[in-house]
Every structure is written in C-alpha cells, then in structure tokens.
Design the sequence.
C-alpha cells in the first residue's frame, strides 16, 4: 500500500490485499465486540448491587445480561466462519524493523525521532513480510503521534525473544499461544520491559475507566492484523505516557531453516542468475536471502538505469530480471523496452505494489513473462521464477 493509513477505497489495492485487509478488520471488530460485551457484563454486575430491592430494575437488568451473554458468543462463532489457517513465511525481524523505522523517519514530525536498538540475536517470526511491515509502520506512527505530548521526543524500539508459559498465556486470555515469542517494545527508553502477562491489554487501555475511548476502525484493523499473525498488542504505563508492546510467535532461526521462507519444494531450487531491480531497500535483504538460499545468484540494481547498465555489461550472464515498475530515474516500463533493445529474448518478471496487471498490459503483450502484485509471498516469487526459467 502506498499510504501509512489503510483505506478500502484505494484504487491501487489488489483484490487479494483488499480481501486480507477486510478479514483483518473483521478480526479486529470481533475482538472489539467481545471486549465491549465483557465490559457491559462487568458494569451490569455493579449496577445490580445498586438497584437491589427494586424488582423492575432487576428485571430489566436480567434482560440486559441475557442479551450480553447471547451477543458475546457471536464473535467466536463469526471468527470460525473465516478460518484461521494462512500460509506464512519465516521472516527475519531485523530487516522488517529496519524498513519500518526508515519509513517512519520520513513521515514523523522532525522533532520526533525513532531509534532501533541492536538486536541481541537473530529473531524470526512467521507472517507475510509486506503485510507485517505495513501494520508495524501504522502502529509505530500512531503511537508516536499519540505520545507526542508526554515527554522525551526520542522513541526507542527494541525486541527480544522469551518463553511464554501456559499459565501466562491463560492470564492473557489465550490470544498468544504458549511457547517462544518475540516482544517488540516502543516507547521512551525505560530499560528491560516487564513480562507480557504483566502488561495491560489493548482493550483494557482503549476502554479503561480513565477516559479510555473506542479506537477508530483503522486501529481496529491494525489490531486485527496482529491477531491474524497469532499475536497481541499490550501497553505499559511509563511516567505520563504509554509504551507499546507487540507480541508475535517466534519461529526457528535462519541457521536452522532450509530456506528463509520454509519452501520445501525441491523443484523451486536453481542455479541461475537473477537481476533484482527495485528501489525499496527495505525488502532487498529478504528477497536476496531467499533467492540465495534456493541456490540462485542475485545481482541488485536500485533503479532502471542501473539495471540497463548491468545487463549490457553482462551479456548472457543474466537469466531473469525481476523488475519493479515504479522507480526513480527510469521506471520499469522504460527499462523493459531498453532491455528488449539489448536482447529481444530477455526474460522479465514484472512486480509492483502501485500498479495493477491491467496497467502493464502493454509490457506483458510486448513480451514480459509475468506480473507479481506486491505484497506477494516469497513462495509465489519462487514458483513464478522457476516457471519462467523452465519455459
């Protein structure tokens, strides 16, 4: 997505991205409904003590409690209709956080800074890289702006891995399964964060008695995305402000994986050379590491002009060009036709998060081998690349 705030009306959204975002919003709304029902049930218990001895009031209160009980079951039932199984990749957290911080730096007010602390070890989480990075950017920006008047303008972002035992998971409502988890913390530097089960929940803060208000739908959609990834949002009071904690399940570290994206299909491996042409440096590490783990050699170009020079200087040495369509200096459209002038048989796989397949129809009809809409899963890239190289 091109904007830090999500909107379904965005004409550049692909159908899959629109559907996944709608499902995330639904998941967030289910959680909101359940949280409101729990709070209504609690208030009803308090009111019952106040109206004791008033038969009419107690009768109405009984009806209210019955409605709340019935409504509280709807979110669970509705969530089951959508299912929970998704195809996730194993994502290294460092490039994910670095890319999010870099993007936030361009969008935050100059007086507000966001600094990433060094990670003590390599952390890996399951998910969809582009989807997770977009929601992290949205959450970081939102939290930074909401905490703008609470003191130190320098926000610190850190992450650590820890074990969440079954008892702690139960105390947190079961939103995060027991096991190894990653805790991402954003706020003023207050030292080591407390254990997750000692933090306040997202809805306790949003609906708290101290002036809490229901968050808008964009925040609910972001929370739903974290829930879809098996995670949770928590808060910690620090001085007169809040520290944000994002919890995600951890997965195997990279040295323990066969490939970065857990690709098990041996026929997706190769030894060819791929020229990656993309100006989004936040995704370079992820794509390059995955392709190299599959056996490919990767050459990087940051824009179309660099790609032309590299391709011309390596006649016969580039087997496939992965070409982003929106770049500075020379875009993918211009670069493709320049590549065709050098070699009419050049194999090019187009990619973009800003244009649709219909927008590049002329390039496809002129000989481009295919199109991948961002955000895509790494296994989709591997399959598409192998199909083009084997054609």
Sequence:
């Amino acid at each position: 997505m091109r904007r830090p705030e999500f909107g379904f009306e965005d004409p550049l959204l692909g159908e899959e991205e629109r559907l996944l975002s709608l499902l995330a919003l639904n998941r967030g709304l289910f959680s909101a409904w359940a949280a409101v029902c729990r709070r209504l049930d609690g208030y009803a218990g308090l009111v019952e003590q106040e109206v004791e001895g008033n038969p009419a009031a107690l009768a109405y209160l009984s009806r209210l409690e019955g409605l709340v009980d019935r409504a509280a079951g709807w979110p669970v039932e509705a969530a089951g209709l959508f299912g929970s199984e998704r195809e996730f990749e194993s994502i290294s957290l460092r490039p994910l956080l670095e890319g999010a911080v870099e993007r936030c730096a361009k969008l935050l007010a100059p007086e507000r800074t966001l600094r990433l602390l060094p990670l003590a070890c390599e952390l890996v989480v399951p998910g969809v890289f582009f989807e997770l990075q977009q929601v992290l950017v949205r959450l970081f920006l939102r939290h930074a702006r909401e905490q703008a008047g609470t003191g130190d303008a320098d926000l610190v972002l850190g992450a650590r891995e820890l074990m969440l035992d079954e008892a702690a998971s139960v105390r947190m409502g079961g939103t995060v399964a027991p096991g190894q988890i990653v805790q991402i913390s954003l706020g003023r530097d207050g030292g080591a964060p407390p254990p997750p089960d000692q933090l306040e929940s997202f809805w306790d803060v949003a609906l708290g008695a101290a002036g809490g208000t229901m968050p808008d739908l964009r925040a609910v959609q972001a929370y739903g995305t974290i829930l879809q990834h098996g995670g949770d949002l928590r808060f910690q009071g620090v001085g007169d402000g809040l520290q944000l904690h994002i919890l995600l399940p951890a997965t195997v570290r990279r040295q323990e994986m066969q490939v970065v994206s857990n690709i098990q299909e041996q026929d997706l491996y190769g030894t060819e050379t791929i020229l990656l042409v993309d100006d989004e440096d936040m995704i370079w590490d992820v794509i390059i590491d995955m392709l190299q783990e599959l056996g490919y050699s990767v050459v990087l170009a940051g824009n179309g002009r660099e790609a032309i020079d590299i391709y011309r200087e390596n006649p016969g040495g580039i087997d496939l060009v992965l070409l982003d369509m929106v770049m500075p200096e020379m875009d993918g459209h211009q670069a493709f036709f320049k590549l065709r002038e050098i070699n009419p048989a050049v194999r090019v796989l187009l990619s973009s998060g800003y244009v649709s397949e219909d927008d590049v129809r002329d390039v496809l009809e002129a000989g481009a081998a295919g199109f991948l809409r961002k955000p895509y899963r790494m296994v989709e890239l591997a399959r598409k690349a192998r199909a083009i190289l084997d054609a």
The chain has 13 helices and 13 strands. The domain at 89-249 is CATH 3.30.565.10 (Heat Shock Protein 90).
